[in-house]
């Protein structure tokens, strides 16, 4: 069992129950899944861009990514419905906890001039989305082996009812939020 999952059960749940006065342990919010997404709009011209994105995401997560397709055609972007334009991975269980631990303790502190992540990424239902400019913050990615820098979107889906509960859950789990 990863260290962060053990801390969730022993420290975070009791703290959340006390703070929000939940009647039972099952009411305390928990992390359901983490979705990593790389949008590769360049893939319309060059299909090899998707192969690089798949390789990077597979290295970071240890799981094979799924190709995402365009839902509708947009003429201004030369985009047709059904074209492959990105890759995503959904992490659950042990891989999710291991990734969250690596994200909070290894990857985010490696960002240049890092002062914490802004709290404005919540969606109103307790889920948090964070955007990264480059995949190099993860130690699995070697600078010499990549073909181009890619940004990614990381969405942490929780069972929290509102943003305050979700924020407090992630804060107690060790997410380095900026003090505004």
The profile of the biggest β sheet is:
5 strands, antiparallel
Low-confidence stretches: none
Distance between the termini: 34 Å
Question: What is the CATH class designation?
Answer: Alpha Beta
Please name the fourth-level CATH homologous superfamily. Answer: Ribosomal protein L5
How many β-strands, per DSSP? Answer: 5
Which class of secondary structure composition applies to the elements?
alpha+beta
Helix content: 25-40%
N-to-C SSE string, H for helix and E for strand: HEHEEHEEH
Structure characterization notes:
With 180 residues, the chain is an alpha+beta fold. The chain has a single domain (3-171), classed as Ribosomal protein L5 (50s Ribosomal Protein L5, Chain: A), CATH 3.30.1440. Helices cover 32% and strands 18% of the residues. A five-stranded antiparallel sheet has the order 2-3-1-5-4. The longest helix is centred in the first third of the chain and has 18 residues, at 3-20. It is globular. The chain starts with a helix and ends in a 7-residue tail after the last helix.
Give the helix/strand layout.
Layout: H1 3-20, E1 31-39, H2 48-61, E2 66-69, E3 84-91, H3 93-107, E4 128-132, E5 152-158, H4 163-173
Antiparallel strand pairs: 1-3, 1-5, 2-3, 4-5
């Amino acid at each position: 069992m990863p260290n962060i999952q053990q801390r969730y059960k022993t420290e975070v749940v009791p703290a959340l129950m006390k703070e929000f006065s939940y009647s039972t342990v099952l009411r305390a919010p928990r992390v359901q899944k983490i979705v990593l997404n790389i949008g590769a709009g360049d893939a319309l011209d060059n299909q090899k861009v998707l192969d690089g994105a798949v390789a990077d995401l597979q290295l970071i997560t240890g799981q094979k990514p799924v190709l995402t397709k365009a839902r509708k055609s947009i003429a201004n972007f030369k985009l047709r419905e059904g074209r492959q334009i990105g890759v995503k991975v959904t992490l659950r269980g042990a891989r999710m906890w291991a990734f969250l631990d690596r994200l909070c303790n290894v990857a985010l502190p490696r960002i240049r001039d890092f002062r914490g992540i802004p709290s404005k990424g919540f969606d109103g239902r307790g889920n948090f989305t964070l955007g990264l400019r480059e995949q190099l913050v993860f130690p699995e990615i070697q600078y010499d082996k990549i073909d181009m820098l890619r940004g990614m979107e990381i969405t942490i889906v929780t069972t929290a009812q509102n943003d305050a509960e979700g924020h407090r859950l992630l804060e107690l789990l060790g997410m380095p939020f900026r003090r505004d």
